[in-house]
């Protein structure tokens, strides 16, 4: 009986590990089903046939503030104008930094001139953990076939200084442009930087 209990515990641990195993570039992107800031439910499969960008965000994070000085908004507009689905994801749990409601999300989108397709609320953290999202920002690019093609940092200089944006290698933008052209991003994985996701 004891041996069976140990085996069951081991199986449960293995299942949990697989449930939140790190996603792999070149493999199908993890599916998700979450509500957006208006209450509408979105799943990855809903966007089959389109490129999808996932942007983990937290409006109070200084690294996010840096890129919402104009850079993130421009990226959103550049890619959504090319029919890319841009999903800004908030995985901050209730009561933690960055957690907001629908009204605050709408206010932030308007006041900052942001242009995502939708803002997703991942209060449970299930989506974020499935993607191993670690920082805000943390960027992902998924191709039309639902394959994860890029994950990592928005650029190469891990600072909160706006002036560094122009000097940095734009890892995410380079990757997104490559995917739109039917090419493989290089690099396809980079180290993200920013504030920790507040699970």
Protein described:
The protein is an alpha+beta fold. It is built from six helices and nine strands; from the N terminus they run αβββααβαβαβββαβ. It has a seven-stranded mixed beta sheet. A two-stranded antiparallel ribbon has the order 6-9. It is globular, with a radius of gyration of 17 Å. The model is unreliable at 1-18 (pLDDT under 50).
- Sheet-strand content, in percent, reads 15-25%
What is the first-to-last residue Cα distance?
37 Å
In the sheet with the most strands, the strands line up as: 2-1-5-4-3-7-8
- From the spread of the alpha carbons, the general shape counts as globular
User: Which blocks of ≥5 consecutive residues have pLDDT under 50?
Assistant: 1-18
Taking the sheet with the most strands, its summary is: 7 strands, mixed
Structural class: alpha+beta
Task: Count every helix, treating DSSP H or I runs of 4 or more residues as helices.
Answer: 6
Specify the helix fraction band: 25-40%
The ordered H/E elements are HEEEHHEHEHEEEHE
Tally the beta strands.
Answer: 9
Please identify the oligomeric state: single chain
- Rounded to the nearest angstrom, the radius of gyration is 17 Å
The pLDDT mean sits at 92
In short:
With 199 residues, this protein is of the alpha+beta class. It is built from 6 helices and 9 strands, in the order H-E-E-E-H-H-E-H-E-H-E-E-E-H-E.
Could you name the key traits of this structure?
single chain; 199 residues; alpha+beta; two-stranded antiparallel sheet; 18% strand
């Amino acid at each position: 009986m004891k041996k069976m209990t140990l085996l069951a515990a081991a199986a449960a641990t293995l299942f949990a590990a697989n449930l939140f195993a790190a996603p792999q570039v070149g493999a199908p992107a993890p599916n998700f089903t979450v509500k957006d800031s208006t209450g509408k439910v979105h799943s990855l499969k809903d966007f089959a046939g389109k490129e999808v960008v996932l942007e983990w965000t937290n409006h109070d994070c200084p690294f996010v503030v840096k890129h919402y000085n104009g850079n993130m908004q421009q990226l959103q507009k550049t890619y959504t104008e090319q029919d890319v689905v841009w999903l800004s994801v908030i995985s901050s749990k209730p009561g933690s930094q960055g957690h907001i409601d629908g009204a605050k999300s709408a206010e932030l989108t308007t006041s900052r001139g942001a242009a995502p397709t939708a803002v997703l609320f991942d209060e449970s953290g299930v989506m974020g953990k499935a993607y191993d999202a670690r920082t805000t920002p943390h960027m992902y690019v998924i191709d039309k076939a639902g394959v994860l093609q890029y994950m990592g940092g928005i650029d190469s200089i891990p600072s909160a200084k706006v002036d560094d944006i122009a000097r940095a290698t734009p890892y995410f933008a380079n990757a997104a442009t490559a995917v739109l052209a039917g090419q493989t991003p290089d690099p396809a994985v980079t180290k993200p930087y920013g504030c920790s996701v507040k699970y």
